[in-house]
Each structure stands twice: as structure tokens, then as C-alpha cells.
Amino acid sequence: MTGFSASTVSRVLNDKGEQYRISTRTTKKILKAAADYNYYPNRIARGLRLERTETIGFVVPDIANPYFSSIAKTIEVESRKRGYSIFLCDSLDDISTEKELLNLLAGRRVDGIILAPVGIDSGHVTDFRRRGIPIIIIDRYLPDSGIPYVTSDNYSGARQAVEYIISMGHRDIACIQGLNGISLNSDRVRGYMDSLVKIGIKAEKSLIVGDDFGEECGYIQARLLLGRKTRPTAIFALSNLISLGVMRATAEMGLKIPDDISLVSFDEQPYSALLASPMTTVEQSINEIARIAVNMLFDTIAGGNKEGRIKNIMLRPSLIIRSSVKNLLA
Amino acid sequence: MTGFSASTVSRVLNDKGEQYRISTRTTKKILKAAADYNYYPNRIARGLRLERTETIGFVVPDIANPYFSSIAKTIEVESRKRGYSIFLCDSLDDISTEKELLNLLAGRRVDGIILAPVGIDSGHVTDFRRRGIPIIIIDRYLPDSGIPYVTSDNYSGARQAVEYIISMGHRDIACIQGLNGISLNSDRVRGYMDSLVKIGIKAEKSLIVGDDFGEECGYIQARLLLGRKTRPTAIFALSNLISLGVMRATAEMGLKIPDDISLVSFDEQPYSALLASPMTTVEQSINEIARIAVNMLFDTIAGGNKEGRIKNIMLRPSLIIRSSVKNLLA
DNA sequence: CTGTTAGCGCGTTCAT
DNA sequence: ATGAACGCGCTAACAG
């Protein structure tokens, strides 16, 4: 439209006018025409030519979980600042779907992937990594996979929670856990047990129950625990959904928190402070985790993070103390 | 690798072997090689050639809001069934960001867009539509824009809620609203007022307060309402966040729901049933909204929905009755 | 300071 | 039943 060649237009629109010493008059003409005709370059053609699409894949087990959607927001905003768009992929907590999604993203030639992996088995992820697409793992980590990760220090979070419960005079503390075997869960359980050992109590096996991070698990296990002859005085719930289940169970059984049973939960939520008994929670710095993961990914994409310079990061969570734990010493 | 030309491989991999009468032996060889070498076609090159990328854009004001992340999940899953991936875009509730995102998506040559628009002004959306990229609007609608939408029937939802409150004997019912001027809000307020008119009460202006869907708005307005000499007996909150704010205010003031004040809220949440006083809510069929929107979009992409065949859809929400409204007639 | 050429990987048309 | 040639829109290399 301007009479100039595509090359010249391309150079101007990519801010290389100066480098190629395009005349100011030409530059202005081209920029004006681009604005007038509302021209936006075809990113598909660009991606093909550059072998760089300026897109990243974000794979999560469940985007409807507020925990992951908060992370999604940070990742999207941070990525866009750099001109990147993100493909949202929900693995439905299913490992074969996750595998399929990784292949799909490879076919779409994403420049990198942020993955919150589903399970324990990481074979397909390490396999996948050989294709050369940078991956950063968040939330959980895959031991010995050599893939860089950013997570919370779940061990520390658990210790803070349980040591606080102990400091309030509790000794019979139950732990309702999630999916056994994954790093996130075992780190939390280890923190729970070590806190007890520290004051000379051996963690009783019968007090560690549950096998799923969902609400139903919390409900069922709470009913069982509270139905025992000698019931624990406190419950440590390893996820936001588990504690919802616990609260439903206690309400149904006519028990009050913290009068009849104390409760501390992993994962701060918008409603945590607003419950009948404002809940003491372990808050993870999810925005920080997301931000760091994105930065690590872009470093790797830029080539600044070659093989061998793997950096793993664990962020310390903090305990938000409210009034869901009864003080037995008072 | 197989010795066959790219053309033949392409035909086999796109299931056109039969059409081109490729021999069974060749087909098998190619499929085997593709599997062995873990070959996935370059979707970028494909998109360039076909002028169809099999991607759609999903633009929301805030992906961290569980309401939108639930919708995102359905859209992602439904799209993937058809081989499509979605670009997640967060407009940060900012209209100029929304505008910029639409241009970005156009540059990425998405085949269609699902948009939960930020505000009242829809000029940029109608402008954008002239580029020929199909758009479906959800959550809110843009009156007179001629763009097809799928939303809840907010008027009906409000009537159900308020008529229920009335049926429990309440007459002094306050309404804490969100962003004034958008269809979603005004429809709900209209439903509230009409319900009162129906029983011969003129809606009092002083009982309709608030200007934002956030938690802070609910908190402030609740404190003001409950601090009045003659306080209302019930509050109708027009969003999940507003009702969180109301609950925080009542807790701080030492008031009990429903004994001291009754409450009904828009938007069912996972915790709604688990609050100290399980909350009566208006539940929108968000999964259904998302599913219908996706289907409409794919119809349009497939060309089955030419100009003029615009179809707007409103889904009736349902009232989930729990125990946050006191029965004054008992 | 600007234009011409070539090629990214694919699917399609034409040719055989 | 299969291959060769072409072009989608872009940018980097080369040419002047």
C-alpha cells in the first residue's frame, strides 16, 4: 500500500528502522499506513519463520481450583508483558491426558511449558524434555527427574502449623492427608511427624488418615475420627477442600470449632477469615511461585539457563493464626 | 524417512488415504513411522497454509474468580474435544486491556473468541467484529450490539430470591448491588424491585446500595445498613464476594445470621453449604452457559451461523434454599 | 537506505 | 497410487 517492499515494512514494524538506517520519512509513512489500515502482522507466519511462537503452555490438573486459577492469572499477566500468550490446558488430574497435552503443545510449537504435574510417575515428562522444549514444574516436584521446579516448602509449612497446635497444649493431633506418594503430600506428612517427635511423641499411625485432596475425603475421615471413643483434640487438614469436608462433618455432628475440635488447614482462601470460627491456615505465596516460575522459564527460553544450571526453588509458607484452635493451657 | 514424498505422508496423516487411493501397505508404513518417531505435524505451518489455526481466544475480566475459572474449564475441555486449544486472556477488568487483547488474538489468527466483556461501552467490540472473527459473549450482554450472547436470566434469579425472602415474612429487604449500569446488575436490581412491587411495596431507594461486586463493597454497605436505627431484616447480595463482605461485617458486629439478619446471595460456591449458617444462594448454570457458548462459537466457525442468524440465550438460574433466612411467620 | 531472494512446514493442485 | 511444484506471510541474508 505504501509502495515499499515487504522487507522495509517488516523492518520498520519490528523497530529495526534505525539499525537498517531507514529514512525517517519512510518510517513515518509506514507507521501511519499500519495504523490507518489497522494492520497487525500475522503471528502464525512470523512463528513459522522465526521458529519462535511467543506462546507458552500452562498445564494444570484443575483450572477450576482457585489455587491454580490464581497462579494462572499471574502467569498470564507476566507473560503478556513480554508479548507472550498462554495456552491453557487442563489435564483433568489424569496422567494420560497430561501426556497427550504435552504432545499437543509440542505440535503447536510453544516456546516453553509451565506444568503442575498430576502424579508420581514422571517418565513421560522426562521423555518429553528431550525434545528441547523448556519446562518448569510448579506446585509439586518430580524427585530425581532433573527438571527445575518452584514449589512451597511444604515441610516447613506443616511444621509451623503443627508446632503451633502443640503450643496450644494439644497432644492428640490427627492429620488428614491427600494423595499419597506425591512430594507435596509426603513433605507435609513428614513435617507433621517431625513436629510430634520433637516433643517426644511418636506419631500414631491411626491418626494419619485420608488419601485424596478432595472435600469428600475430609468429610469421611472427619466423621470417622470424631466418631471414635477417644477422639483427637485437633485436626491438621492438608488442603482447602479437606478442611471444607471437616467443617461439614463437624456441623452435621453438632460439634463446634474450636470448642469441641480444633482445626488448622493448608491453603488460605478468601473465605477463611469469614467462617463461623475464623480458620488458622498455612498460606502459600502462590503469586510469588508463579512469578518466579515464569521468570525461570523465560531465562531458559532466552538461553541463559543451559543444561546443568538447574535451579530449584522452595518458598517458605506462612501461618495465619486466627481462632480455630482452642488454647488448652488457658 | 519412509521414502515417500511429503504429499503422500500428509495425505495419510490427514485420513485422506482412501480418498487418494493410497495403498494399504504404504498407509501402514507411514503410520508406523509416524508413531515410531513420535511425529506430530507442525501446527504453525498447518495454520498458515489452511488459514485456520484451531485455536480460540477466551477473554475474561478476572480468571482468579472461581466463577470464570469454572467456565474456563468447561470451555477448555469442550474445545479440546474438537482439536482446539484456547488462549487464556485476562483483561484485568480494564477496557483498554480488553481492546488490546482482542487485537493480539486477531494477530494470532484465532478462529473465534469467547468474551466476558468488562464494561458498558462496546464500541471496540462491534468494531472488532467487522474483521470477521466470530465472537460469542457470555456473562453479560451488550444491548443493541447485535453480538450473540449466552448469559443467566439475572432478572429471574433475582425474582426467585426476593420472592422467597418475602414468603418468609420479610418486608424490609436491602439490596447490595455491584457495578451500576451493566446489564447483569440492572437486571438483578429490576428483579428485586419488581418482586417488591408485586406485593404492593415501593422499593425504597435508601435500601439499594453499593457500586462494586467486590468484598469490600459488601462489607462497607453491610456495616452502614446494620448501623441504621431501623435496620432491614434481610439483605439480598448481588455477588459471592459481596456476601462474603456482609458476613465479615455481621461477625464483627456480633450479629448472627439468620437470627439478627437474613441473607441471600447470588452465586453458589463450594463453601456456601458449609458456613456457620448454610447460605441460600442463586445458582447459575455456569457449565451449561460455557457449553452452549462453545457450541455456538463452533457453529459460527463452521459457517452454519451466518449474519442474521444471531441467537441469544438466557438460562434460568435456580434458588438453593438453606438456612440463612429467618422465618418471621413461624 | 531499500529491494530481491529464499525458505520456514504444510496441504493442495496438477501431472503422470 | 504417488510425486513435483506452488504459495500461505513473514524475516534474515545478500545485493546494491
Walk me through what this model shows.
Chain A has helices spanning 6-13, 24-36, 43-50, 66-81, 95-107, 123-129, 154-167, 183-198, 215-226, 240-252, 286-301, and strands spanning 55-60, 85-90, 112-115, 135-138, 149-152, 173-176, 208-209, 234-237, 262-266, 280-283, 313-315, 318-320. Chain A folds into three domains: 6-40, no CATH class; 54-152 and 286-317, Rossmann fold (3-Layer(aba) Sandwich); 154-284, Rossmann fold (3-Layer(aba) Sandwich), CATH 3.40.50.2300. Chain A contains eleven helices and twelve strands. By secondary structure, chain A is an alpha/beta fold. In chain A, the strands form two sheets. In chain A, strands 2-1-3-4-5-11 form a six-stranded parallel β-sheet, sandwiched between helices. Chain A has a six-stranded mixed β-sheet with strand order 7-6-8-9-10-12, sandwiched between helices. In chain A, strand 3 (112-115), helix 6 (123-129) and strand 4 (135-138) form a beta-alpha-beta unit. In chain A, helix 4 crosses helix 11 (286-301), helix 7 (154-167) packs parallel to helix 8 (183-198) and helix 9 (215-226) crosses helix 10. At the A-B interface, helix 3, helix 4, strand 2, helix 5 and helix 10 of A face helix 3, helix 4, strand 2, helix 5 and helix 10 of B. Strand 2 of chain A pairs antiparallel with strand 2 (85-90) of chain B, so a sheet runs across the interface. Chain B binds a DNA duplex (16 and 16 nucleotides) through helix 1 and helix 3.
